Amino acid sequence: MKLRMIGCSHHGTPLEIREQVAFGAEQLEPALVGLRDKFPDCESVLLNTCNRVELYVGHEEGTSLPPCDELVEYLADFHQIDSRVFRPHFQSREDKHAAEHLFSVVSSIDSLVVGESQIAAQVSDAYERSRKGGFAGPTMHALFQHANMVAKRVTNETEIHRRRISVPSVAVSEIASEFFERFEDKRIVVIGSGEMGVETLQYLIDAGASNIDVINRSMERASTVANRFSVRAQPWDRLESLLIGADLVVSTTGATEPVVTELQMKNVLSHRRKGNLLILDLAVPRDFEASVARLPSVYLYTVDDLQSVCQRNEMFRRQQLPKAKRIIDEEVQRLLADWSLRSSGDTIRALRDQASMIRDAEMQRLLSKQAMQQATPEMQQEIAQTMERVINKLLHSPLQSIREAPHEEQRESLVSAIRRLFQLR
User: Fold this and answer.
1) How does strand 188-191 pair with strand 43-49?
2) For the domain with range 2-157, which CATH number is right: 3.40.50.2300, 3.30.460.30, 2.40.30.110, 3.40.50.150?
3) Alpha-carbon distance 251 to 224, whole Å?
4) Is the dihedral of CA 192, 196, 200, 203 positive or negative?
5) Phi and psi dihedrals of 237, rounded to 5?
């Protein structure tokens, strides 16, 4: 089996180049259809994420694979751009190295954020799209099923996914979760409904929170986000009253000045009947004046506090890389061995079938002779067994050489030589 990959990613390819060769969701299947029309003998899987575009092609016979230059030209024609623009940024990999790269991608050690959890599902979706469309065959099936196994092993046998490394995820999973035993009974205020506010909301809801108010200077924006997560939207003028009743506040605005001063916070505290207040200020610049941290019963964490946790967790993930790479190396060797044995198994069967056809033809020719007409069934059986033993002894050495070849390259060379010598199809 032969495999080829071309592609570009965040490793060394500028965003403006990746944007030109990226595929919209509606373009993926037409691209695969066009590829099959141009190269009907090869299987294909197209992986498209925000940080990479990679095309995998494969076939049981390497002679059917299109050259890398033709694959690049096809992608350029599809996007109607000059291939010279992005050709220098496209990497190509063959066979073992292509499989090794895919396994690194699916296990997230090649990701922009090491250990990110979305890539395994994205790889699986790319394969399923090709399988359902009839673009993937036995080669892609074996490769991507093995990739799925690699992703599971890396997840189960390392801790590369175990610690959060984004600011909102650390804020919820490591700071708030240590402060509160549970979130179901806590009243939470999220100030700001931009990207970071939305991400924080998702983590809070995943942790069990439901009593949440979203407040934003734009009521329309607050309502849009609140409806998306089935929580409450509040007008900006209710900020202080919301702080009075809150257990947890997460602030993520883009304001250039603090939205809550020490004086405002003192007024809030004078009306509170609750205990401690945890404030996670994720905004840059900060939404809460630094002096708020000095007030009684207030626990204020800023981005700087959380960044140190993020960096520590990222370092922990990177310490898992050697273990993940060992798993990938093991699985690459296992995949290559499977492919090689499958290929040599086909050759062995073809050689035995050819020998059996020759034996049967010669037996029929022999038994049709006049002198053999009087041969008893026992004599005919003895002759047939003798011919079978001769065939087995003649084939034993070449077949044993294939099975015992110490390296994949040597096994492939022997298989190719036997196919040529015996003219096997």
Assistant:
1) unpaired
2) 3.30.460.30
3) 18
4) positive
5) -70, -5
- Higher-confidence residue of 81 and 345: namely 81
* Active-site residue, from 8, 50, 68, 310: 50
What are the tens digits of pLDDT across the range 313-327?
A: 788 888 888 999 999
Distance, in Å, from the CA atom of 304 to the CA atom of 301, rounded to the nearest integer, reads: 8
Q: Contact, 187 vs 242, CB < 8 A?
A: no
pLDDT at 8: 92
Q: Tens digit of pLDDT for each residue in 78-122? A: 999 988 888 888 999 999 999 999 999 999 888 876 777 788 999
The angle formed by the CA atoms of residues 96, 98 and 136, to the nearest 5 degrees, is 110
User: What are the DSSP calls for 303-352, one per residue?
Assistant: HHHHHHHHHHHHHHHHHTHHHHHHHHHHHHHHHHHHHHHHHHHHHHHHHH
163 Cβ neighbours under 8 A, 6+ residues apart = 115, 313, 316, 317
**Is it the case that residue 1 has pLDDT exceeding 80?**
no
Q: What is the pTM of this model?
A: 0.65
167-315: CATH architecture: 3-Layer(aba) Sandwich (3.40)
Domain-wise residue ranges, the chain: 2-157, 167-315, 337-421
Strands 277-281 and 298-302: parallel
State the Cα–Cα distance between residues 189 and 274, nearest whole angstrom. Answer: 15
Active site residue 8: no
pLDDT of residue 164: 67
Q: For residues 144 and 335, what is the distance between their CA atoms, to the nearest angstrom?
A: 11
Least Cα distance to 24 among 6, 46, 9 occurs for 46
Which helix (H) or strand (E) covers residue 221, if one does? helix 219-229
